Amino acid sequence: MKYGPDQLYTEDRTLSVLVDARTGELTGAYPMPWYLRFLEVSRPLHFGDYGGMPLKILWALLDVVVIGVLVSGLLLWVGKRRIATDARLRALGYELDDADDAAVPALTAGTVR
Asked: How much is the pTM?
């Protein structure tokens, strides 16, 4: 159901209707309890039915921004961790090859600890 600008978004969600599955006849209509009414009112917010396509596009762009922040934070964390790992390996006496950033087990001084 599409909603116009002057319609309530919840007007079709406040009444529970029972229908007989065999005959298709209406057997009863009951008002919803307050907690179910609250859940049904929040449904358009959850699915984004209230703003149309412009709002969905805005949310998609904001999602891309959040994903970018997440990925950049992860890359910064991995880079910082790699620097710390390299420093520990150098402290243990490993010589690091700068070409591929892999630890080469050639010791520079002394014995293995």
From this structure: 0.46
